């Protein structure tokens, strides 16, 4: 028996056809473990297993499906520390982040979808007068939420617990079966999730996990004829290719794509609050998150003070070992991604931006670290202000009045989450309604875990989270009958 992680297909742990590859700790550059490299044929077998399991699982009573999710939540909570240690090693997230926002959120999401209310609702009866179609009568109707079928879940590397849990839990709650294709950089945590679901009583084939670095594996689980829906979190470029495949077969899709969040800071804003919120870009997943307020639009009355305070904030952040309790900024996921982020900082300099702080590689012997970097004197047509960098880099653009600020915010290919900081709450809400974004945070970067999540424009298609995820992973069926 191999000492590497095996695939999970049809309720069995299967040796991968393509052997194994190392998963690297981005903080130490040492191996965390060996991940399985599935073949395209094994990926298709996982889809076939999900198809075979779909009928029985979809007919299982919702209460029984909920019980499986509830048990999985308890198992994950009970293994919080080892699961979080693995997540920290795979992703470079700090211990606190791995425990609370990765594994902790995953457990909460399984618990949330273990208590789904009835997925049907009444429609007002239709009263028909006598006429050519027949005598007078009443027609009743129900709208039922039915499972979509087999769902392929392609997940992101920045959170290998909360992201797949946010797909798998509502999909299973609605009676779908799933095939999970985790990000190749950190797939081991997703296999632990599969173990928890297996231990919780999920029948064979209801959950399947196949990983691999070869793009053919992902292509196989997206294009399989057994798949009815694809749920993807990742870059807009990859999302576009997946959408093309789904479009050919009219396959349902849920796309959570890139972002370039605008943070409008008005003259009357609480600057301490704005700095703390914007500063999460430097620390939260080291900026590797699509919701980060990476594009700051500062009204001229506070522009200089905001830049100065952001620079001071960034310089105070401790960079280093994610396992150390006082570490705030960990590494980015890989050497390749570090080089990409650094290339954007160099590009910003060439475009005319001022590097106020950061811009250099921290003096650490090992690890893929990028110093929190603040770019000032930016304009909105610079590439650093328009393209998703996905690292601890913030650019600041000045504006004069409300109309200009809104125009600059909307002048973007993306529209995931924007932010507004203002002491005038009425203006903040007025501005929020004008922003072309799927979500807007007013004086906060916090999230409500029942609020819909998704983007406008190239930031995605569809909405999930809370009850919106139940809608995303179901089809509406109308049933009518004579009264």
What does this structure look like?
- Keywords: Oxidoreductase.
- It comes from Streptomyces monashensis.
- This is Aldehyde dehydrogenase.
- Residues 13-479 form the Aldehyde dehydrogenase domain.
- InterPro entries: Ald_DH/histidinol_DH, Ald_DH_C, Ald_DH_N, Aldehyde_DH_dom.
- This protein is α/β, with parallel strands linked by helices and 483 residues long.
- The protein has two domains: 7-257 and 459-482, Aldehyde Dehydrogenase, Chain A, domain 1 (3-Layer(aba) Sandwich); 262-449, Aldehyde Dehydrogenase, Chain A, domain 2 (3-Layer(aba) Sandwich).
- It is built from 16 helices and 22 strands.
- The chain has helices spanning 40-59, 62-78, 80-91, 95-112, 162-173, 188-199, 215-223, 236-248, 271-278, 280-283, 300-316, 335-351, 383-386, 402-410, 425-434, 467-472; strands at 7-9, 12-14, 20-24, 31-36, 120-128, 137-147, 150-154, 177-181, 207-209, 229-233, 252-256, 262-265, 295-299, 354-357, 373-376, 393-399, 414-415, 417-421, 439-442, 456-457, 460-461, 474-482.
- The strands form six sheets. The chain has a seven-stranded mixed β-sheet with strand order 14-15-16-13-12-18-19, sandwiched between helices. The protein has a six-stranded mixed β-sheet with strand order 9-8-7-10-11-21, with helices on both faces.
- A hairpin with a 2-residue loop joins strand 1 and strand 2.
- Helix 9 packs across helix 11.
- The chain is globular.
- The model has no long low-confidence stretch (mean pLDDT 95).
